[in-house]
Amino acid sequence: MVGQEKLDRINYLAKKSKAEGLTEAEKLEQKQLREEYLVAFRESFRKQLDNIEIVD
């Protein structure tokens, strides 16, 4: 699961990217953080889907 600190860092880098641009190291960090977030999101979403029970 992605913690609040990582989400805050993702948001900070996104804002900085729009305002002034990112260094190559920051771009790499942003890419890695986004990938981690997407993996955690997909895992969580899949668990939710697995717990759905269809009733007729």
CATH class: Mainly Alpha
Total helical elements? 2
* Beta-strand percentage range: under 5%
CATH topology: Helix Hairpins
Give the integer mean of the pLDDT values: 94
* Number of domain units: 1
Number of strands: 0
Order of helices and strands: HH
Residue share in helix: over 70%
Task: Tell me the CATH architecture.
Answer: Orthogonal Bundle
What Rg do the Cα atoms give?
16 Å
The backbone outline, from C-alpha atoms, is elongated
The computed structural class is mainly alpha
Task: Characterize the largest beta sheet: strand count, sense, and whether it forms a barrel.
Answer: none
Outline the structure in words.
It comes from Anaerosolibacter carboniphilus. It is found in: Cytoplasm. This is UPF0291 protein HNQ80_001734. The protein has one domain (4-50): Orthogonal Bundle (Helix Hairpins), CATH 1.10.287.540. Helix content is 77%, strand content 0%. It has 2 helices and no strands. The chain has helices at 4-19, 24-50. Helix 1 crosses helix 2 (24-50). The longest helix has 27 residues, at 24-50.
What does the secondary structure layout of this molecule look like, with pairings?
Layout: H1 4-19, H2 24-50
